[in-house]
Design goal:
This is Flp pilus assembly protein, pilin Flp. Keywords: Membrane, Transmembrane, Transmembrane helix. By secondary structure, the chain is an all-alpha fold. The chain has a domain of about 40 residues. The protein contains two helices and no strands. It is rod-shaped and about 85 Å long.
């Protein structure tokens, strides 16, 4: 029984898996935030360009 417990405590496979899950979650979060930031900037730029085009057509 103690041998099984020692082997269980020495096994680090679960720890490595948790580390990878945390790392992948961090990278995914960073990617999503980057895309949302770029999207917001692109939408703002497009809105300005469209409104400038419309105002030129009206004038």
């Amino acid at each position: 029984m103690t041998r099984s417990l020692q082997l269980f405590l020495a096994n680090e496979d679960g720890v490595v898996t948790v580390e990878w899950v945390v790392l992948v979650a961090g990278v995914a979060t960073l990617a999503i935030l980057t895309v949302l930031g770029i999207r917001a900037s692109a939408v703002d730029t497009a809105d300005v360009a469209i409104w400038n085009g419309i105002s030129q057509l009206i004038d």
